[in-house]
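Posting this for the archive.
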Amino acid sequence: MTDDIGYSEALAELESILGEIEEERVDIDELAVKVRRSAELIRLCRARIEAATVEVEAIVDDLEAGDEE
């Protein structure tokens, strides 16, 4: 399952798939499967980036609020 892997692992797999496609090492029968997997990995990476952004912004806001007290 895609959600069980971390950002770095997803990114590495995505780069591997991209390399295979760019070097034309993907059989045409597997191309759709590889593209579908790539889309899953991109969605996962975007979600992880968004979650990290929200968390970092909350931490910064909390620190700034503490400085104002």
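The mean pLDDT is 92. The helical segments are 7-22, 28-68.
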